[in-house]
Amino acid sequence: MKPASFDYAPVETLGAALSALSAQGAKPLAGGQSLAPTMNLRLVRPRVLVDVKALPGMREVTETAAGLRLGAAVTHAEIEDGAVPDVTCGFMAHVARGIAYRAVRNRGTIGGSLCHADPAADWPSCMVALGATMIAAGPGGERRIAARDWMRAPFVTALAPGEMLLAVEIPRLPPGSRWGYAKINRKVGEFASALGIALPGVMVAGAIEAPPALLHAIEGIPPLAAVAVTRAVAMRDA
Amino acid sequence: MQPKGLAEGVGAPVLRKEDGRFLRGRGRYVGDIAYPGMREVAFLRSPVAHGLIRSVTKPRGYEAQVFTWDDLTGVQPIRAPSALPGFRKSDQYPLAHGRVRQVGEPIAMVMAASRAEAEDIAELIELDIEELPAATDMLAHRAGPPIFDGWPDNVVLQALVDDDISDVQAPIVVRRSLRTARQHMAPMEGRGVVVRWDERLNQLEMHTSSQMVHVTKTGLAECLGLPEASVRIIAPDVGGGFGYKGILLQEEVAMGWLAQRLGGVALRWIEDRREALSGQANCREHHYDIAVHADHDGRILAIDCEAHVDSGAYSAYPFSACLEAAQIGSILPGPYIVPRFRCRTWSVATNKPPILPYRGVARTGVCYALETTLDAVARKAGISPVELRLRNLPGPEAMPYVNITKKIFDSGDYPEAMRRAAEAIDAAGFPARQAAARAEGRLIGLGFAVFCEQGAHGTSVYHGWGIPFVPGAEAAQARLTPDGGLEIRVGVQNHGQGMETTLAQVAHEMLGIPLSRIQIVHGDTAMTPYSTGTWGSRSAVMAGGAVGDACALLRERVLAIGAHLLQAEAVEYRDGAIHAGGASVTVAEIARVFHRAPQQLPPAMQTMSLEVTHGHKTERDTGTFSYAAHAVEAELDAATGQVKLLRYLIVEDGGVLLNPLVADGQVLGGTAQGIGTALYEEMPYDAAGQPLASTFVDYLLPGAGEVPDIEILHMETPSPISRFGQKGIGESGAIGPPAAIVNAINDAIAHLGREVTDIPATPERILAALA
Fold first, then answer.
1. What is the pLDDT of residues B491-543, one digit of tens each?
2. Do the beta carbons of residue B472 and residue B491 sit within 8 Å?
3. Which GO terms label this protein's molecular function in UniProt (chain A) (predicted)?
């Protein structure tokens, strides 16, 4: 399958990007690892792809005492390889290593994955567990969106029409923090059937066909998710 | 003939000649072929599984780029009948005619400057289809409603081996109902066609990703009403066949028709994964109601089986819709001594893609049904699965062994393969390992499968089927070039089997010409002898034998010329030269003299061509029987239903191996596919006949992460009927894994009184078995 006809719009400034994105049928393009296949299947038919990868700030990485700001176009591979500072005691690099396969990680971006908002993907659940903050830009300027408010429903985010994701702010985990991550999937690199995340004082269940769930106890989630969270907790506490 | 042990000859573990271009990305596949001004083709395919076509309306302005069946004047539908009694024929139209019977069936062909534009135009075609109820389940819909007018039901063929076994008195009777899922073969390279009319040669020149170019040529010529001289089929590098490319395609016929009308403009269609997955899940779907009767010691007294094969919507050319069902009745007894046997098999037409024989063909399902049931017999008899098999396998003293269905096992020591596998995987120590694991709360199991693989069977086996071809002798041409190089021309297809190396090794064995100077030419009807192609694990035996025979004849001529040049009576052929006493003349010098200095030869010798084409048959054409024992240690995660293969070991007897590295490659690749059948691959359909997987996100193939290191131990019992003692093993790896893996799973949960019956053994099925 080849995609339906579309226009390609590389942009150099945020203003130009937001202006292009305000058009009917415009969609931002980052790594294209989810968007391009769905376009090839003609399941989505954007009229124009606004290539936002090269915008100022999209690949910027800033470390502060509080944590790390990752431009939305930072790739999974860069996180996997330690090309960005580690503020999560190795947690994010570990997660990145399990995303799809290397060719996808070379191009796929953290922001693209968050905007695609597939509940079976890794980053949406991880951002909830980390208490991350999404930095969105729109015609009205920038705004901050807490990760737990990000995914409204499967494949639906809190972004308003015309908005795009600029960056993610990840709070620093205390040094020496232990974590656990359990991804139950049918084969290596495949989307998760269930995700369990355990950070200090935090448990999250993901891939539950709904937005990720912050848990106080391992209950009220599908059985497989309960297995995943239990294993994540065991990994953290081992 | 005994191999001489040459460094590049039969049995030498030389690296594959063809791998250089494959590993460097320099292979040339159909998708790499282009002509100036080439047009791209897309097909509008049926969105429904069953329906009456009320109308197909071409979009305004694109009438000259869109073609339906009504346009295809002079074209005959594809017909692959069988002469087996009761076989119900059906026509497969290149583009749908009046009715569609599977999702993905081509309805219209669209030509445009690019594939994307062709797809755009295809979307504009107005399709009015009255949807009909779909036959989706071979058991529920066997009786109807029939999907073909004039049929009383949906039975394509009923194959009965109807021995009355009601007198068998067995203390142990184990019955099982088992199901294997419908699969898609998923070669790395899909199908593809590039075709144009060559005015100079008055010939349709078609590049297509095929494993049987000559059969395609014959079938295509018939459908298009062309003399065969006006059709040339070329299969360049082919990225995996597995049976998926052993077919005459609807697309080939439709595009062949159109290409004749374009004055030399080339057309290209490259199948995409979505077309393949949604419209070509075409293999492996079987159902078995099987009963094994045994005595207290686990000796088989009788096998009683009712089997169903979901044959899909049409009879694919050339193997027809009955291949698997007819095969089940003859191969279900597997490698065992079975005194009594009854098997009734039904091929059922459904609204799914037409069945094709996938690597292993019916053997994979049959092995699964018998081997898992035998393990249940062992549990009931209170003996180990290894002991049960040892008690039922024919020993080497029984060879050649003629089994209950008159299969002639040519040679081998089947019990020894079982013993070696059990020893190598430490079956004796397994109960202790299992107990220790259970004490830690882990479930592990050990499973085995033993099977044989009839390969390279020929005329006497196939002529009774009455399908569009009957394999006869396999021909090869050996051509000595003036510079002393050798060209070998064969009609079989190398689509990953390493034949450019193994066949060259055979030629080297016969003529001593260095491997680097031997060129294997294949995949082109204009350049090779007629052949039924590569299928049925036949090429190493048949083409290998043919190359051997042709080279032997060439060698006689070379010897004669050499003797003349040396003016000697007693000459010896050794190391690529002719020797007489202390004098010698090389093959290259003989070739030079023959082609470029014929004046040195007497006239009778000048007319002796150094191109020899000769046909080969094995000494008995009932096939070589390779066999293997697979052994698996697996761990089962009771919380998630996931299976981990801890160890996978194979004892394989492929007779004399032309090249052990290539043999290992064949076994490893097949085993990976068998692991897919066992644990991952499944094309589910809904009640309307819609395929529920259309990408590899939904249709899971095992990857490097899912295939463990596989240990292969070889036995090499020569076949008495093949030229070098070699046997066909190309499909072997894909046969054993479902049985061995499910036996390991069932062994892990037997103490809980649970069993898995259907494959793939997905987490859902395993959790259901444990629930």
1. 999 999 999 999 999 999 999 999 999 999 999 999 999 999 999 999 999 99
2. no
3. FAD binding; oxidoreductase activity
Size of chain B in residues: 771
Q: Which of B115, B120, B697 sits opposite A5 (nearest CB)?
A: B120
Contacts of B274 in chain A (CB under 8 A): 1, 41
Total number of domains in chain A: 3
Domains parsed from chain B with CATH numbers: 19-27+473-616 (3.30.365.10), 33-132+191-238+245-279 (3.90.1170.50), 286-459+620-770 (3.30.365.10)
Q: What pLDDT sits at residue B464?
A: 85
B40, B210, B333 from B192: Cα distances, Å:
11, 9, 38
Q: What's the CA gap between A81 and A96, in Å, rounded? A: 9
CA–CA separation, B367 and B328 (whole Å): 10
Q: How far is C-alpha B341 from the chain's CA centre?
A: 27
What secondary structure letter does DSSP report for A92? H
pLDDT above 90: residue B2: no
Distance (Å) from the C-alpha of residue A208 to the closest C-alpha of chain B? Answer: 15
**Among A5, A104, A184, A191, which would you mutate to test the B interface (most chain B Cβ atoms within 10 Å of its Cβ)?**
A184
Dihedral sign from CA coordinates of B702, B703, B706, B711: positive
Residues of B in contact with A5 (CB under 8 A): 116, 120
Q: Are A191 and A180 in contact (CB under 8 A)?
A: no
Q: What is the pLDDT of residue B326?
A: 86
Q: What is the pLDDT of residues A11-53, one digit of tens each?
A: 999 999 999 999 999 999 999 999 999 999 999 999 999 999 9
Per-residue confidence band for A171, with pLDDT thresholds at 50, 70 and 90: very high
Q: Which helix (H) or strand (E) holds A136?
A: strand A133-138
CB contact under 8 A, A4 and B120: yes
My answer on whether A70 and A20 are in the same domain is no
Whether residue B697 lies within 8 A of chain A, CB to CB, comes out as yes
CATH of the domain at A90: 3.30.465.10
Q: What 3-state class would DSSP assign to A149? A: helix
User: Rounded CA gap, B405 and B329, in Å?
Assistant: 8
Q: Which of B524, B528, B575 is nearest to B547 (CA)?
A: B528
Predicted pLDDT at B162 = 85
Q: Tell if the CB–CB gap between B763 and A193 is shorter than 8 Å.
A: yes
As given in the structure block, the two tokens for residue B90 are: 């059906």
Question: Within a domain: residue A1?
Answer: no
- Of B531, B528, B525, the closest CA to residue B471 belongs to B531
For residue A210, what pLDDT band results from cuts at 50, 70 and 90? very high
Full domain range(s) for residue A75: 61-171
Considering the domain architecture, whether residues A120 and A20 belong to the same structural domain is answered as no
ipTM: 0.95
Is residue A56 assigned to a domain?
no
Shortest CA distance to A114 belongs to which of A164, A79, A69?
A164
- Check pLDDT > 90 for residue B325: no
Structure token digits, residue B733: 């790896």
The pairing of beta strand B518-521 with beta strand B486-490 = parallel
Q: B700–A41: do the CB atoms touch at under 8 Å?
A: no
Render pLDDT for B468-487 as a digit per residue (tens, 0 to 9).
Answer: 999 999 999 999 999 999 99
User: Buried (b) or exposed (e) across B247-286, using 16+ Cβ within 10 A?
Assistant: bbbbbbbbbbbbbbeeeebbbbbbbbbbbbbbbbbbbbbb
Chain B residues inside the 8 Å CB shell of A191: 697
Do residues A207 and A145 both lie within one domain?
Answer: no
